[in-house]
Amino acid sequence: MKVAIPIFGPRVSPRFDCAPSLLLLTLENGEVIDRREISLTPLGLGQRVERLRELNIETLICGGIDGQSAQVLKAHQIQVTAWVAGEAEEAMKYYLRGELKSGSNLCPGVGRNRYRRGRRSLCREKTKLRQRRV
pLDDT tens digits, residue range 37-91? Predict the structure, then answer.
């Protein structure tokens, strides 16, 4: 089985169409037996999709992906696990354990909910300061 992860440095690339490289992993009996990094830099979006087909990829683990590319990949029996954020190695560990799903945020302490909580508390502090001044 072959799994591909578009990467930006050591992380899952935030966008499939902008990833400079692809981490290609060959799995056998639940273990990685081969890994390669393939450059995607000169390829456009359609060429990237075609390249995945040529490489016989069965699963794509990625960050953001446009709807058309996701549909084309699914039509070619390539499973897409999208909106994954974090280190590519962590994503692979979760995948091997069967715990990776679309929308997984593998960055501890980072995420939309944490930001919102921080912003709310900041707004509360500003409100308290205004009330004290009056």
Answer: 999 988 888 899 999 999 999 999 999 999 888 999 999 999 999 999 999 999 9
The answer to whether position 59 is within a domain reads: yes
CATH of the domain at 22: 3.30.420.130
The tally of domains found in the chain comes to: 1
How many other CB atoms sit within 10 Å of the CB of residue 3?
A: 22
Asked if residue 132 is part of any domain, the answer here is no
The two structure tokens encoding residue 63: 């960050």
pLDDT at 132: 57
User: Would you say residue 76 lies in a domain?
Assistant: yes
Q: Could you tell me if 25 and 2 are in contact, meaning their C-beta atoms sit under 8 angstroms apart? A: yes
Phi, psi (degrees; rounded to nearest 5) at 20: -75, -25
Local confidence band at 107 (pLDDT 50, 70, 90 cut-offs): confident
The whole-angstrom separation of Cα 111 and Cα 88 is 17
**The residue to which tokens 């446009």 are assigned:** 66
Angle value at C-alpha 69, between 58 and 89, nearest 5 degrees: 50
